[in-house]
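Still learning folds. Look over my entry:

…
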Amino acid sequence: MYKHIVVGGTFDGLHKGHTYLLTKTFASGARVTIGLTSEAYIRRFKKGKDITPHSKRYQALTSWLRHQGVAERTMIVPLDNRWGSTIIAQDIDAIAVTRDNRTTADEINMLRHERGLPPLAIVEVELIPAEDQRTISSTRMREGEIDGEGRLLLPDSLRPELQRPLGKILESSGIKQAVLKNRDNVVIAVGDVTTETVFLCGVKPALAIIDLQVERKPYQPFESFKFPKEYTIVRVKSGPGYIAKAAIEAVEAWASGIRERKRIVLVIDGEEDLLTLPVIVHAPIGSIVYYGHPPSTGREGLVEVVVTKEKKTEVARLLTRFT
């Protein structure tokens, strides 16, 4: 462990990538100095970006340090340029960086050499990917692509499109007949009321996705309902407003086992609505997907989607807009 290590950054939003960098820094040094970019730095190097004021970033950082129990080992100093005091300080022996700012550490060591100072050991910390495998960044958070944990968020521009039905809307009188007609197909039900409806029609869906809620309120029927023994219950966290990678992987796992006629109930901790999209993308061609069309859209009912190659392409394009 180094005696004194430094790390610098803007730490806007204090996301998962930031906390990982800081955690690795504290694991590498007994004392840690954090250079937090100042307002002057932002005006000079990040002009035009909607960055949180220094005081609020400082407050968020100190709160995290206290929560981690490392505040007493830390000094936070304002950073007005890329190097701060590292090019002249004699009591520092290491610097923590990521791939994105490794060149800054190399510059610092070059400038220290010119001043007759020993080079700093460079601790390079890997970047943390979001669920789309692109790096988590404050810029992506500000643009609404991801949250601080790297989860993909639903962009506001996509909400109107998702309110349009992806297939045929079935109204109450025709639902049972339509569902029974497709009982020999691979049937998928997304939503608690939809799943209950499909079962009441006498059809066992190959995949059911529920979140034990309707309109954000607990849904009573599934508290006592026992799924048949052939169903495997899988629990995953996803939503609201984002699609978790683990949920997509669970859908993919179900699709890969479709030939073995595996039946799965995916219980979502969060909200299941958006999972209709990856379901259509990964379901076999010819599958029938049912999901609810809410009253707020002006036309309540059950949406019936026949999975075709064209429908998969259409929905896959919608999914790309989450990234």
About this structure: The longest strand covers residues 29-37.
